[in-house]
TrEMBL record:
Gene3D superfamilies per UniProt: lambda repressor-like DNA-binding domains
CDD domains (UniProt xref): HTH_XRE (cd00093)
Organism: Actinomadura alba
Protein known as: Helix-turn-helix domain-containing protein
Ranges where the DUF5753 domain occurs: 116-295
């Protein structure tokens, strides 16, 4: 019997209660396949040849960036010496489950592949830390504010497309009030709170919502004031996602105009974590947030 990776119990746990849908399942299964391949001393090129593909395809599979064909998983398990049905069964079942569309599939017309990954990771995260300089964080936006942001980013989109994008954002927001929700810790530049997107009334509604939502025990909001000057995150907005499953590494998410970067190398994570810690120190304390929001609200 071939020895399984040390993380095999996590496969069973995640399959029994998958959180985050197919995105997380793909990442978890990919990690298992990578461990099995490395333990067998087989290169990505050799694995790719075995499934009539390439080493780049194996790399994407192991990162969970693409869906799995059950036949490919079966062939790879055979190649890696996993022959016992009791060992193969959970992994093949996981491959089938990983191909099940997530709730966000209904928004596929307006959801690019590079952002679909993030939505799945957001659903699975136990902790989300984010810094925003231009906008209120997506998970904290009201419908009117989200519509204004969407129109700004997609000026040529039809009204139907705009409303689909807004509906997607509102659906994502439900993660904060779901059972066992993630803890969201956001640091927001004061400029984002004073920029009246959607007009003064929409911004008043957004600020009132922030006052309300920060009362949730799983939401922490800090404001980085104008008068602070330069700060640690001069490069712009970013998010760090942490997961309850030990097989899922922390991920840094950097959104660009038409794509995104997902960083999970230890040195990259450490650098962004250090920047986030400095931002939390440089920002106004959490206890001051409600007062700041009400003051800005009174000035609109």
């Amino acid at each position: 019997m071939t020895a399984q990776p040390e993380s095999e119990p996590s496969v069973r746990n995640m399959f029994a209660a998958p959180r985050g849908g197919p995105t997380v399942l793909r990442i978890l299964l990919g990690a298992q396949l990578r461990q099995l391949r490395e333990a067998s001393g087989i290169t990505r090129e050799g694995a790719g040849y075995a499934i009539r593909s390439s080493d780049s395809k194996i790399s994407r599979l192991e990162l969970g960036r693409v869906g799995f064909k059950e036949r490919d998983v079966s062939d790879l398990l055979t190649l890696y010496g996993v022959l016992d049905n009791d060992e193969r069964g959970p992994l093949l079942a996981l491959a089938a489950e990983a191909n099940t569309p997530g709730w966000w599939h209904r928004y596929s017309e307006v959801l690019p592949g590079w952002f679909e990954v993030y939505v799945g990771l957001e659903e699975a995260a136990a902790r989300i830390r984010t810094y925003e300089v231009q906008f209120v964080p997506g998970l904290l936006q009201t419908e009117d504010y989200a519509r204004a942001v969407t129109v700004l980013g997609h000026p040529d989109a039809s009204q139907t497309e705009i409303e689909q994008r807004v509906a997607l954002r509102m659906r994502r927001r439900k993660v904060l009030t779901a059972p066992a929700p993630p803890h969201l810790w956001a640091v927001v530049d004061e400029a984002a709170l004073r920029r009246p997107l959607g007009g003064a009334e929409a911004m008043r509604g957004q600020l009132r919502h922030l006052v309300d939502v920060t009362a949730l025990p799983n939401v922490t909001l800090q404001v980085l004031p104008f008068d602070h000057g330069g700060h640690a995150a001069a490069g712009g907005a970013f998010s760090i996602l942490r997961f309850g499953e030990p097989d899922l590494p922390d991920v840094v998410y950097l959104e660009q105009l038409t794509s995104a970067l997902y960083l999970d190398k230890r040195e990259e994570l450490d650098r962004y974590l250090a920047v986030m810690e400095r931002l939390c120190i440089e920002a106004e304390p959490v206890a001051a947030t409600t007062g700041i929001l009400k003051r800005i609200l009174s000035e609109l």
